[in-house]
Amino acid sequence: MTKEISNACRASLVAAGVAGILASGVLAANAQQQQPPEGWYKACTKQEDVDICNVQNIVIAESGQLITAVSMLTLEGQVNQRVFQVTVPSGRAIPPGIGMQIDGGQTRQLEYVVCLPDRCIAEAPLDDNVVASFKRGQALTLTSVNFQNQQSPVQVSLAGFTAAFDGEPMQQSDLEARQRQLQDYVSRNTEDFQRRLQEEQQRSLEAE
User: Fold this and answer.
1) Using CB atoms within 10 A of its CB, is residue 165 exposed (0-12), middle (13-18) or buried (19+)?
2) What would the pLDDT profile of 126-178 be if each residue is shown by its tens digit?
3) Contact 158, 137 (CB under 8 A)
4) Distance of alpha carbon 142 from alpha carbon 162, whole angstroms
5) What DSSP character marks residue 32?
6) Which residue has the higher pLDDT, 130 or 22?
7) Which of the residues 57, 62, 91, 208 has an alpha carbon 20 to 30 A from that of 35?
8) What's the confidence (pLDDT) of residue 203?
């Protein structure tokens, strides 16, 4: 595999990984009591001569904004590669990277590979040891450092990871339904957050 193919593949991975992450999630039936999408699942697709499977989880704030996303990508075909990605919001301190810890064990540092206007992505090779540690573990803690030099730890449950990693991928129709549901969730919660913010600002002006 040439360097050009590898770089192109990495760019594709970033785009496909994040898009797949943001396509996850389930809504509660009651719109007034919606919960953020959560849980592990597997999505597989084909890009030209490469089969890509993505096992992922996402943590979303009440405002509908991304907090942390975890993605394990496996590529087979013209390109054979396994990649582990963690996505966090932008405004991160770059040199520390992201600390990954499972059940209070030793912390592993993940280096950022790209920062976009709305998110930063750290990446490392995905090997059998990482997968095995996820299967044995109970909780994953991911710690990034924001622009104020404050640590921002986020805990992700590993419950359901083994079933998602070893199980069959979701059907395309189910993935599309989940994507529509998540988009609706993010849109509604973003609008609610902005409305509450405007109300707080108006009350502050009236109190002056």
Assistant:
1) middle
2) 999 999 999 999 999 999 999 899 999 999 999 999 999 999 987 776 666 66
3) yes
4) 19
5) G
6) 130
7) 91
8) 63
Between CA 30 and CA 9 the distance in angstroms is: 41
CA–CA gap between residue 50 and residue 163 (Å, rounded): 24
pLDDT at site 20: 46
190 backbone dihedrals φ, ψ, rounded to 5°? -65, -45
For residue 123, CA distances in Å to 17, 32, 90, 127, 141 come to 11, 37, 15, 12, 16
Q: What angle do CA 93, 40, 90 make, to 5 degrees?
A: 20
**How many Cβ atoms sit within 10 Å of the Cβ of residue 101?**
17
d(C-alpha 176, C-alpha 34), whole Å: 19
Block residue for tokens 């904004």: 65
Distance CA 11, CA 81 (A): 13
Q: Indicate whether this model's pTM tops 0.85.
A: no
